[in-house]
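Continued from yesterday's entry.
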Amino acid sequence: MAKADTSPSQCKQEVGHVHDECRSVILPGRNPSALCCQLVRAAHVKCVCSYVTPKVANFIPVRRTIRQIEGCGRSVPRNFKCGSEFSTSNLYLIYIS
C-alpha cells in the first residue's frame, strides 16, 4: 500500500473507483470482486474515511463492510473510527492503513 500523501483530486478519484467497483457488496449474498479487493488493499484511509459522513454511514452496514474488508485481506482494529463511524466488531482485524 502506498504511504505517500494524496491530493484531494487523487482522493476523489480513489474513492470513486472503490465506490463504483465495490458498491454492490453491501447487498446480502454479494462478495467483492477481485478488482474491488485490489482497490480496497490499495486504498488510503485518509481518502476513504473522509467519505464516511453521517449521511453515508446510515447506508453502510458496518459489520458487513468490516467482513468484506477482511475478505479482501485487510482488517479493521476494534474501535477504529473512520469518518463518523466506529467499528463495532469484536473480531481482531487489521484495517486499511
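--- second protein ---
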Amino acid sequence: MMSKVRKAVIPAAGWGTRFLPFTKSVPKEVLPIIDRPAIQYIVEEAVAAGIEDILIVTSPYKKAVEDHFDRTRELEAVLEAGGKTAELEQIRALADLAQVHFVRQGEALGLGHAVGVARRHVGDEPFAVLLGDDMMHPRSPLLREMIAATEERGTSTIALMRVPKEDVSKYGSAAVEPIEGRDDLVAVRGLVEKPPPEEAPSDLAVIGRYVFTPEIFDHIERTAPGKGGEIQLTDAMATLAAGSGVNGLVFEGGRFDVGDKVDYLRTVLELGLEREDLRADLLSLIRDVAAREGIGDPS
C-alpha cells in the first residue's frame, strides 16, 4: 500500500486551436457546458474522487481560468442585495471546492513539460493528472477506480478505452498484457503516440486521465524533446512502463471529448437533457429542429 492520492494536476496552458477564433481571446477551458465552464467539471471530478489539492498549469493568457475559482466580492454583494441566494451560494462554493493553486508553464514545450512543472508542488507523492479536453460524466467512477488501483498496487495507472482501429491514430496506443484476477486492469508493456492504424499495438487508446507515482518526474526530465521541440508525456510513460511499471484501467462510456466541436455539442445536449430544469424545453427544441430538417421525431 502506498500513500493516499491527495493532489491533482490539470494542464491548461494550450492554445485551443480547434476552437479558433473563439479561443483567440478566451481560454478553451472556460468553454461553457450549459452554465459552467468545462474546467469546473474537471475540478469537481477530482474533488469527487477524494482530491484535496489541485494545481492548474496555465499560461499568461489564462487569467480567466484563475478568476473563475477566485472570490468576486462585488458580484457577491450584488447577488446578496438582490436576494439571489441560490446564485450567491453557487459562486461562493466555487472558492471552497478544494485548495486550487496555479502555476504558469512559461514555455509551450509539450504536455510532458507541463506535468513536469508541477514537480515542486506535488513533491514525493502519487498524484492524478486530468486533461481538460477529456471530460468524464459526473457519475463516472473512473478516476476513483484509478486512484484505488494505484494506492493498492503502488503502480502508476493510466486510463485506456477501446476505439475503432481506424481512429487509433488520434491517440496514444498501448501494448498490454492481462493481470491475473482483473478483467479491467492490464499491465502496459509499451506505448506509441498516434501510430498509423496498421502499426498500432492494440485498439486500446490512452485517454486523458492518469494517476502517477512520483517517479514519472525523473522520466520526464530524461525525455528528449520530440516533434516541434515538445516533451511528450507518452514517451516518459513508455520509459516508466519499462522500469517500475504502469497499469492501465480499461473503461467504457462516460467520456466526452470537449476539444472536438461535434462532441462538445453532444456534451451540452446529453448533460442538458439530464437536467430537470432544461429537459422538456430542450426536447421540444430538438423536435422542432429535427422536423424542420426532415429528420423525423427524435423521440
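The chain has eleven helices and 13 strands. The chain has a mean pLDDT of 92. Will compare against the first tomorrow.
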